[in-house]
Structure prediction request, 708 residues.
Amino acid sequence: MAEQILLRAEGVRKSFGALEVLKGIDLEVRQGQVVSLIGASGSGKTTFLRCVNMLEEHDAGDILLDGEPIGYRMDGSRRRRLSEAKVSAQRARIGMVFQSFNLFPHLTAEENVMLGLTKVLGKSKAEAREIAGHWLGKVGLEARRGHYPYQLSGGQQQRVAIARAVAMDPRLLLFDEVTSALDPELVAEVLGVMKALAESGMTMLVVSHEMLFVRDVSHHVVFMDEGKVAQSGAPSEVFDRPDSERLQKFLGRFHGIFSGGG
Amino acid sequence: MIDYHFDWTVITRNADKFVAALGLGLGLAVVSLAIGCVIGLAAAYARVSGNKWLSTPVWAYVEVIRCTPLLLLIFFVYFGLPEFGIYVLDKTQSFILTLSLYAGAYMSEVFRAGLASIPKQYVEAAKAIGLRPWQRQRWVVLPVMFRITLPSVGNNLISLFKDTSLAAAIAIPELTFTARQINANTFRVMEVWLAASGMYLATAYLMAMGLRLLERRYASIR
Amino acid sequence: MGFTIPGTFTFELWQARFSLLRGISATLLASGLTIVAATVMGVLLGTILAYGWWPLRLLARLYVDILRGIPVLVLILFTYYGLALFGINVPAFWAGVIALSAFATAHVAENLRGAVQSVPAGQMEAAKAIGLRFPQRLRYVVLPQAIRRMLPPWVNTGLEIVKGTTLLSVIGVVELLLSTQQIVARNYMIIDFYLVAGLLYLIINFSIAQLGAALERRFSYLRY
Prediction:
């Protein structure tokens, strides 16, 4: 693959107290790729994703976006934490969608999307409204632009959250188990939006338990186990030729899905 | 800024007065809370009785008290009762009457919320074992409500204790009045106010700690 | 008819109209100043309580707990006589407003802290994720959501402040209560004029409570 590397993680470590959750993660995401993180809960997928967006601060190792360290700068051989303003500017280049949607309940769907556009990117209200309309249209919710989150279903809320993230025109989009809190019948509409985004060339790092979706959409799949990358490669490689018993066991839990003829 | 030389002997010399004054304030607060609880309980039952002729006057009582400054009430009762031909109360009794009426309004709101929060099943279970209405209240509703409202009752006691400082306005020798008197005699303003503030603070703090212990003791249910 | 006969209530009320007006003005002015000051400072202090660097947070906590443990009257007396002692000659009115504000600030701060911490953590994270800086996250995401929970106790603090202004009478500020006492000292109509004063406080506080209820309705769309 010739595309340039957008995100590179090297030896990323993170502990919560005595518990080491990430034990040295190495990972690359190339421009336009969809990379999925799979693994049992507690394997560190979500923690890694949160480190990429500095919702957690990693203890050691590097996370580089376009070659630039995230959250700190090097001062000789010492790392110095970036100022709040610089961190915010970096975050603005990385979009994130959460498991629990986290739409702002006091703002309408449209205002949710507009907030970052006006306050972070400094766009005019009119321009922001136009962009918000465009993206709400893309996720199929143009007609709901004036609705408050509580007036929307879970699936609709999550689609607004995706529009909010993608409207910022980020270099990279992070998805943290975005369908886990949804009723089963609402999962498909959200995955559909994500697939369309992937096909449009958006670079995405996805934590998901939707194995069919992962297999279908990903360019690269990373299996994480106990804070390490246990296996990674093309979906066909990881899903069809698991090289460890643990991955086999993990995938076995989803066996019904794959053998279901789908 | 002038130099101020602290002379704490003014506190030690008057320690007995301070302690007596603090005790008086505490006593006023406790007695008023006790009477206030009785008033509040009656008022709360009147509010939830569903009888308009009972609940409306009680509502008015609560709103009027809540919107009227305590100091005004104190003066009104102290100077006003004799106008109605009632001379029997001395200033301490008059203050207790005022603070009790004041506490009663606040306690009625506390108890009303407490009554409303008692799960219906308890009352139904009490009915099922054949308890008569007043027995249901005495043995089931009130004990549960007591535990639910304990934190609010305790916080009200702390508030009332701080409110006893207003008794100084009608020359009842509680802590604030005593502090002012010692000030007038000695001019050791800083020491005296620091000591009085410290005593209020320490007492309120101890009350809060005691309350937390009580809450833990009764936390088993819920 | 009563207006011309000394000793009747209407006559005395007419005689006392300017005293009462002056009293009400002082009460309203002291209340208004205190509410504004306590709200501004309380929001700042509450933000420190919720998010501050820990030594600052500790200081703020200390301030809040101390101020809430001392009777307002003592604070007022302390401020008035204490400041004078250090050669700072503040008029009684301002000493009272300072003491009341210091007290109410503690209440607003604690209230804000509770309200802000009741906003789900995911809100702050989502706000971070779109790149908002800390003040922006507060201004556009957290505070608008906290306001609904803040409102009822904030209105209560407002009522406490109005009632607390009566304590300024103790240091000689002629607000509504002291002006009433002065009127009563002239005409001995104790019951009548205390009732008038009580009614005026009732009107002021009832209006504040109504305003609070209206604001609450205004923010009721904040469901979650």
User: Anything to note?
Assistant: Chain A has a mean pLDDT of 91. The two ends of chain A are 29 Å apart (CA to CA). Residues 184-199 of chain A form the longest helix (16 residues).
